[in-house]
Protein backbone atom coordinates (compact mmCIF):
# COMPACT_ATOMS: atom_id res chain seq x y z
CA UNK A 1 0.00 0.00 0.00
CA UNK A 2 2.85 2.37 0.87
CA UNK A 3 4.49 1.81 -2.54
CA UNK A 4 1.24 2.63 -4.34
CA UNK A 5 0.85 5.89 -2.42
CA UNK A 6 4.43 6.85 -3.23
CA UNK A 7 3.83 6.13 -6.92
CA UNK A 8 0.67 8.27 -6.93
CA UNK A 9 2.58 11.16 -5.33
CA UNK A 10 5.30 10.88 -7.99
CA UNK A 11 2.68 10.94 -10.74
CA UNK A 12 1.03 13.98 -9.18
CA UNK A 13 4.40 15.77 -9.04
CA UNK A 14 5.08 14.92 -12.69
CA UNK A 15 1.70 16.35 -13.69
CA UNK A 16 2.37 19.54 -11.70
CA UNK A 17 5.80 19.91 -13.31
CA UNK A 18 4.33 19.48 -16.80
CA UNK A 19 1.61 22.04 -16.05
CA UNK A 20 4.20 24.55 -14.80
CA UNK A 21 6.29 23.95 -17.91
CA UNK A 22 3.28 24.54 -20.18
CA UNK A 23 2.42 27.77 -18.38
CA UNK A 24 5.98 29.02 -18.76
CA UNK A 25 6.08 28.05 -22.43
CA UNK A 26 2.71 29.72 -22.99
CA UNK A 27 3.91 32.91 -21.30
CA UNK A 28 7.06 32.91 -23.45
CA UNK A 29 4.97 32.40 -26.60
CA UNK A 30 2.70 35.29 -25.58
CA UNK A 31 5.70 37.57 -25.10
CA UNK A 32 7.14 36.55 -28.47
CA UNK A 33 3.79 37.14 -30.19
CA UNK A 34 3.45 40.56 -28.56
CA UNK A 35 6.95 41.49 -29.74
CA UNK A 36 6.06 40.45 -33.30
CA UNK A 37 2.84 42.48 -33.18
CA UNK A 38 4.68 45.55 -31.91
CA UNK A 39 7.46 45.25 -34.48
CA UNK A 40 4.91 44.92 -37.31
CA UNK A 41 2.69 47.67 -35.89
CA UNK A 42 -0.42 45.47 -36.09
CA UNK A 43 -2.85 44.31 -33.43
CA UNK A 44 -4.50 40.94 -32.95
CA UNK A 45 -7.67 41.53 -30.93
CA UNK A 46 -8.91 38.00 -30.41
CA UNK A 47 -7.87 34.54 -31.49
CA UNK A 48 -8.17 30.93 -30.46
CA UNK A 49 -5.43 29.78 -32.83
CA UNK A 50 -2.06 28.33 -31.83
CA UNK A 51 0.75 30.86 -31.47
CA UNK A 52 2.50 29.94 -34.73
CA UNK A 53 -0.72 30.57 -36.67
CA UNK A 54 -1.25 33.90 -34.94
CA UNK A 55 2.29 34.88 -35.91
CA UNK A 56 1.53 33.82 -39.49
CA UNK A 57 -1.56 36.07 -39.44
CA UNK A 58 0.48 39.03 -38.15
CA UNK A 59 3.20 38.53 -40.77
CA UNK A 60 0.64 38.18 -43.57
CA UNK A 61 -1.21 41.29 -42.41
CA UNK A 62 1.98 43.35 -42.36
CA UNK A 63 2.92 42.06 -45.81
CA UNK A 64 -0.51 42.93 -47.23
CA UNK A 65 -0.46 46.40 -45.65
CA UNK A 66 3.02 47.05 -47.04
CA UNK A 67 1.92 45.99 -50.52
CA UNK A 68 -0.95 48.51 -50.40
CA UNK A 69 1.43 51.30 -49.44
CA UNK A 70 3.95 50.39 -52.15
CA UNK A 71 1.33 50.23 -54.91
CA UNK A 72 -0.25 53.55 -53.97
CA UNK A 73 2.65 55.93 -53.52
CA UNK A 74 1.61 59.36 -52.40
CA UNK A 75 3.70 62.13 -50.98
CA UNK A 76 1.23 63.85 -48.66
CA UNK A 77 -1.07 61.16 -47.31
CA UNK A 78 -0.66 57.53 -46.53
CA UNK A 79 -3.24 55.37 -48.33
CA UNK A 80 -5.77 53.53 -46.20
CA UNK A 81 -6.07 49.82 -46.93
CA UNK A 82 -9.48 48.47 -47.84
CA UNK A 83 -10.62 46.36 -44.83
CA UNK A 84 -12.77 44.12 -47.03
CA UNK A 85 -9.88 43.28 -49.35
CA UNK A 86 -7.54 42.77 -46.40
CA UNK A 87 -9.95 40.34 -44.71
CA UNK A 88 -10.49 38.43 -47.96
CA UNK A 89 -6.75 38.20 -48.64
CA UNK A 90 -6.04 36.90 -45.12
CA UNK A 91 -8.84 34.37 -45.38
CA UNK A 92 -7.49 33.16 -48.72
CA UNK A 93 -3.96 32.87 -47.27
CA UNK A 94 -5.21 30.76 -44.36
CA UNK A 95 -7.45 28.63 -46.57
CA UNK A 96 -4.44 27.81 -48.75
CA UNK A 97 -2.10 27.21 -45.81
CA UNK A 98 -4.36 25.38 -43.35
CA UNK A 99 -7.42 24.22 -45.31
CA UNK A 100 -10.86 25.80 -45.75
CA UNK A 101 -13.36 27.20 -43.24
CA UNK A 102 -11.41 30.18 -41.87
CA UNK A 103 -12.98 33.49 -40.91
CA UNK A 104 -11.19 36.81 -40.78
CA UNK A 105 -12.66 40.05 -39.50
CA UNK A 106 -11.07 43.40 -40.20
CA UNK A 107 -12.81 46.51 -38.87
CA UNK A 108 -16.25 44.91 -38.77
CA UNK A 109 -15.80 43.48 -42.27
CA UNK A 110 -15.48 39.74 -42.65
CA UNK A 111 -13.60 37.88 -45.33
CA UNK A 112 -15.95 35.11 -46.40
CA UNK A 113 -16.22 33.31 -49.69
TrEMBL record:
Keywords: Cytoplasm, Cytoskeleton, Dynein, Microtubule, Motor protein. It holds the Pfam family Dynein_light. Coiled coil: none annotated. One of its GO terms (biological process) is microtubule-based process. One of its GO terms (cellular component) is cytoplasmic dynein complex. It is found in: Cytoplasm, Cytoskeleton. The keyword Membrane does not apply. It comes from the Eukaryota. The keyword Cytoplasm applies. One of its GO terms (molecular function) is dynein intermediate chain binding. SMART domains: Dynein_light. PANTHER family: DYNEIN LIGHT CHAIN (PTHR11886:SF49). Belongs to the dynein light chain family. This is Dynein light chain. It comes from Cannabis sativa.
Amino acid sequence: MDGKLKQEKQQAMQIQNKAASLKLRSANEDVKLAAVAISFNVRLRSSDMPTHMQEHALRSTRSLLDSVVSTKTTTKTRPKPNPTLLARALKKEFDLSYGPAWHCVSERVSGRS
